[in-house]
Amino acid sequence: MATGPYSPPEHSPQIVGGLVRSGDGRDVSNAAAGGDLDGSATQQLPSVLAVRHVEVVYNGVAQVLRGVNLDVAQGKVVALLGGNGAGKTTLLRAITGLLGVHGGEVTKGEVLFNGQSLIGLDAPKIVSAGIAQVMEGRRIFAELSIEENLRTGAFTNRDRAGAAKTMAEIYEMFPVLGERRSQHAGYLSGGEQQMLAIGRAMMAAPKLLLLDEPSLGLAPLIVEQIGDIIRQVNANGTSVLLIEQNAHMALGVSDFASILEHGRVVKSGPSAELRADKDIQDFYLGGASESERSFAEVKSYRRKKKWSS
After folding, report:
1. Residue 136's pLDDT is what?
2. Residue 94: how many CB atoms within 10 A of its CB?
3. pLDDT at res. 44
4. Which parts of the chain have pLDDT scores under 70?
């Protein structure tokens, strides 16, 4: 696998400031919405996170990501959709500095946070820079109390007064946590544990919050609550990258979205447009009947070609 300097394809798609752009700089998402190709109808925002042409290889042989481009604009929620094995978790590892633990390596491309490269930085430095992650499966400390779990999230936060204020705000956001703050976290329900995991991440006062499958294993009513929590976190000024298989929830709370299949971004754009897209409805929102889904599976290669053209 070549690891030399990488020159991106001349016309590879990019997502800039939350907008999909072609390789020659045209605003593809705005054109799809009926705007001009020069992007004049849409105001661009600075990117907090910029993933540029990233390729990831595990153990020197297994390539998982293939030229991924993704942006999270300042103050926005961006969703990344895809099934199991699409490469979503690998992308998060590339952002958070955890690839090496799993035998992975970014062989091409760049990951920028507020314009600064994250490639080669370890996880503690990335957290200190302003990125916090809620991992799939919540990963709370079951034997610690709720309050002790929250305190672990503030480990890199040197502003003790600010951390105390943040904890009070978390208890206000999640009253059930405040009422049971001295109890072992392992006794919480799945939804309450997800609240705690999000609260713990927010204790680091992040500029960017990464959420990996926050709806996994939760009842529909609790999933709605998690969606409301994401909106509230974002309304308080934190940008969010939401990794999800639950397309209904993800497209409902996000401003922009991308679809990752087999390590490639095959479609991107404003979430409202993706919700209205017939292919997205069939494949991700349950819009197709059983017979239609079977036919769609047979034509999946042609569909992906259509998305990426």
Report:
1. 82
2. 25
3. 67
4. 1-44, 157, 285-309
Topology classification of domain 14-131+209-276: Rossmann fold (3.40.50)
Rounded to 5°, angle at Cα 54 from 48 and 60: 140
Summarised one tens digit per residue, pLDDT across range 244-301 is 988 889 999 999 999 999 999 999 999 999 999 888 887 776 654 444 444 345 345 4
Q: Is 203 exposed, middle or buried (0-12, 13-18, 19+ CB in 10 A)?
A: buried
Residue 13: per-residue pLDDT: 41
H or E element at residue 79: strand 77-81
Rounded Cα distance between 7 and 70, Å, is 17
Nearest Cα neighbor of 193 from 210, 206, 174 is: 174
Residue 51, CA distances (Å) to 67, 75, 98, 150, 264 in order: 9, 17, 16, 30, 12
Distances (CA, A) of 120 to 1, 5, 71, 99, 210: 19, 16, 20, 10, 19
C-alpha to C-alpha distance for 118 and 122, rounded to whole angstroms: 8
Residue in 139, 157, 257 with CA at minimum distance from that of residue 196: 139
Q: Which residues of 133-152 are buried (b: 16+ CB within 10 A; e: fewer)?
A: bbbbebebeeeeebbebbbe
Q: What confidence score (pLDDT) does residue 3 get?
A: 41
